[in-house]
Amino acid sequence: MAAKHGKAFTLIEALLAAVVLAVAVSALVVPFAAGVRMQQVETRRSLAASVAEQMMEEILHRAFEEPDDADNEPEDEADFGPESDERERRDFDAIDDYDGYTEAPGTLTDAGGALITDPGIEGLSRHVGADYVYVAGQDTSRDVPLLRVTVEVRHEGRPIITLTRLVHWL
Amino acid sequence: MNRWTARAFTLAELVMAVSITAVIGLAATGVAVSLSSLNEHSEEYYRHLQTGRVASVRLQQTLRRALLVTAGTDDSLVVWACDDNDNGQINLSELVEIHYDPVTDELFELALSLPAEMSEASRSAIDIEMSLADVIQAAANDETVLDMFAQYAARRVLARDVQAFSVRCDEPTPMTRLVSFRLSIGSGARVAQTSGAATLRAHRTAYVGWDNDTYVLSATEVGGDDANP
């Protein structure tokens, strides 16, 4: 009986061996896995910055207010968003038209309307907002000459890049 | 002695232990190797992507401060980059060409760079004033406007290992105000794609008119409407 006892591993010994093995394998695998994950996060962030910049450049090239608006007054913020005849992005002709504009994952397009097919942008969505702002020291009794444009890129609903620009009404 | 014999592994146990260790070791090695390969692939992709981003930023710098995009094809642009001498006209040294060379896989800018020790007379003779029509015509003839003084053309590489480059303008040149571009960088299956856009912040399209079937650059604003052929 004593001899049999000596030959067999105890449960503790077997568990200890398994733990030692698991730690050794983890030590080998975890750094690689962490490296890959970090690269993926950085790649996504880099591409998100790129698509946010593209949208911002497109918006900045639009007019401050509707070109056919002859009253020479900034548009009421409540009227921000595309006009009834501006059904698609390519119809937008003023910055405020982009207010509330959203592109769901897999539908991001460039300024020409071509789908952006860069691998790595899966799961990214793009959201645009515009509002008037006063800056410190500005006369708040006058019409707001500054429009704040915000482009946010989200991954699975969480913001990963936010670009903001102030545009001055000339 | 009996105690020692009882404690030792039998041959069968040893073989089994070695086999199990080998199987687990091989599996762990396989996972580590594939993860290492994935990591390497990921790093290379990221490096290409960063190269593309740097090229994009450089392109944006040139385009954002440009006054006009005087000519463009699917993979090249000629821009009036600045008006250094404030004469309201295009001088050779104020032009920047952006080209993609599929032979060397390079995306580069060309601009006139005159030596500092060059005399003012020589400088003036080389840095000639060009009409907008001449600049457009040179591009239409597939000539680089800097060809005539090629020895003074400075080549600035924006990116290497470029597999494809394409540009698109919102309006036909020279009335362009927004330029979109796409870049593919890398080799084989490891190609990173990136895209970008740039708005000409201080464009002079309002100074471009249409006269005698050609574009002309006016000293004063012509309102833009007169520039529609």
- Poorly predicted spans of chain B: none
Helices of chain A, by number, come to 2
Beta-strand level of the residues of chain A, as a percent range?
15-25%
Helix/sheet category of chain B: alpha+beta
Q: How many β-strand stretches of chain A?
A: 4
Instruction: Give the biggest beta sheet of chain B.
Output: 5 strands, antiparallel
Assembly category: heterodimer
Main interface pair?
A-B, 36 and 36 residues
Show unreliable segments of chain A. Answer: none
Shape, per Cα inertia axes of chain A: elongated
Task: Strand order, main sheet of chain B: write it out.
Answer: 1-2-4-5-7
Looking at the structure, what is the overall shape of chain B?
A: elongated
Largest sheet of chain A: 4 strands, antiparallel
The sequence of SSEs of chain B as H and E is: HHEEEEEHEHEEEEEE
Give me the Rg of chain A, rounded: 28 Å
Helical fraction of chain A equals: 25-40%
Explain what the structure shows.
The complex is a heterodimer of chains A (about 170) and B (about 230). Chain A is an alpha+beta fold and about 170 residues long. Helices cover about 35% and strands about 20% of the residues of chain A. Chain A contains two helices and four strands; from the N terminus they run H-H-E-E-E-E. Chain A has a four-stranded antiparallel β-sheet, with helices on one face. With about 230 residues, chain B is of the alpha+beta class. The model of chain B has no long low-confidence stretch (mean pLDDT about 85). Chains A and B meet through helix 1 and helix 2 of A and helix 1, helix 2, strand 9 and strand 10 of B.
Descriptors:
heterodimer; A: about 170 residues; alpha+beta; four-stranded antiparallel beta sheet; 2 helices; 4 strands; elongated; B: about 230 residues; three-stranded antiparallel beta sheet
